[in-house]
């Protein structure tokens, strides 16, 4: 229900998203097959055998490297049994979990996804995960269709516990989801990830004091005071201002997670968890991680 509302909200408030949605995802895998079918020409005609070109050699090498990586992951999976050794459980510390997310996002941004590229072990993976889960990270992010955290961090099923709400504003049920993951599943990091050109942030900015229709007012409530907290100097473009608002909102919502959850705060103080705000860039695919929120953060800044 929540997800449906969030999606509806995005549809209502982010009309520019419709145009962007027509853009093909950056996937060399998809591009190469699309080009291949285009070249095949007439209906029913098979691609003629021809000598491999330099680019095709590079593609073959890339696929070979992927197969090797997948073979390694298959072996890794075969050694696991039970929840204690479930996929993701090897990230044993907040630092290790964050490093894994950074590495995965590096692969995604470079167009070299491995863990999510080949569907190397779907059946074996599902069988392992049916016994339990140990997602090493919780990702709190926007419902925007251009954000898929498994792709963005190149992590297959079982490794990320996801909460998605328009504007990445965690409500009480979101906090319950986060608490379940960090308390019962052992997640080591909570990343609160906003994104450039967020329709929810834009709607709150543009509506000013006028209440948004339907349940969309709840976005204004969750971001109450955000616009006033970010100075907009004369001459600064709206795009730059939006970017500052998105970053400020990610930090603010990360503080909400820490200050509204005693469970999260306790684990952070014990060094077993960290809460990290981040901003995702739609075009480059890169996630910019911001400094972790500490429990010393002034509670007065989270207007909840
Ligand atoms: Zn958004």
- The largest sheet has its strands arranged as 2-1-3-4-5
The small molecules bound here are:
zinc ion
Write down the domain tally.
1
Tally of strands:
5
How many distinct helices? 13
Radius of gyration: 21 Å
Q: State the order of secondary-structure elements, H for helix, E for strand.
A: HHHHHHEHEHEHHHHHEE
Mean pLDDT: 80
Which regions contain 5 or more consecutive residues with pLDDT less than 50? 1-48, 297-304
CATH topology: Beta-carbonic Anhydrase, Chain A
Task: Give the overall form.
Answer: globular
Which sheet architecture does the biggest sheet show?
5 strands, mixed
Structure commentary:
The chain has 304 residues and is an alpha/beta fold. It has one domain: Beta-carbonic Anhydrase, Chain A (3-Layer(aba) Sandwich). It is 48% helix and 9% strand. The chain is built from 13 helices and 5 strands. It has helices at 2-13, 16-20, 28-39, 54-78, 94-109, 122-129, 149-152, 172-184, 199-207, 217-222, 226-229, 238-260, 262-269, and strands at 137-141, 160-164, 189-195, 274-280, 287-289. Strands 2-1-3-4-5 form a 5-stranded mixed sheet, with helices on both faces. Helix 7 (149-152) links the parallel strand 1 (137-141) and strand 2 (160-164). Helix 12 packs across helix 13 (262-269). Mean pLDDT is 80; it is low at 1-48 and 297-304. Bound molecules: zinc ion. Zinc ion is lined by residues 142, 144, 167, 195, 198-200.
């Amino acid at each position: 229900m929540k997800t449906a509302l969030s999606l509806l909200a995005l549809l209502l408030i982010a009309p520019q998203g419709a145009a962007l949605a027509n853009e093909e995802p950056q996937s060399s895998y998809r591009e190469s097959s699309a080009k291949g079918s285009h070249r095949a020409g007439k209906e029913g005609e098979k691609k003629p055998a021809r000598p491999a070109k330099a680019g095709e050699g590079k593609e073959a090498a890339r696929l070979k490297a992927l197969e090797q990586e997948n073979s390694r992951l298959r072996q890794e999976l075969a050694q696991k049994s039970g929840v204690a050794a479930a996929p993701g459980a090897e990230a044993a510390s907040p630092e290790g979990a964050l490093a894994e997310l950074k590495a995965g996002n590096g692969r995604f941004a470079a167009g070299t996804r491995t863990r999510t590229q080949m569907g190397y072990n779907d059946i074996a993976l599902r069988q392992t995960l049916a016994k339990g889960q140990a997602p090493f990270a919780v990702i709190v992010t926007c419902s925007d269709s251009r954000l898929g955290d498994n792709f963005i961090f190149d992590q297959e099923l079982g490794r990320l516990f996801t909460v998605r709400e328009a504007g990445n504003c965690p409500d009480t049920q979101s906090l319950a989801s986060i608490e379940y993951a960090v308390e019962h599943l052992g997640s080591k990091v909570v990343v609160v990830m906003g994104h450039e050109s967020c329709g929810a942030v834009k709607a709150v900015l543009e509506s000013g004091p006028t209440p948004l229709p339907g349940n969309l007012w709840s976005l204004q409530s969750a971001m109450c005071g955000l616009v006033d907290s970010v100075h907009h100097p004369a001459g600064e473009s709206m795009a730059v201002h939006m970017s500052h608002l998105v970053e400020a909102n990610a930090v603010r919502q990360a503080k909400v997670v820490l200050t509204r959850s005693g469970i999260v705060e306790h684990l952070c103080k014990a060094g077993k968890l960290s809460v990290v705000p981040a901003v995702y860039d739609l075009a480059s695919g890169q996630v910019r991680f911001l400094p972790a929120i500490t429990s010393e953060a002034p509670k007065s800044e989270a207007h909840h």
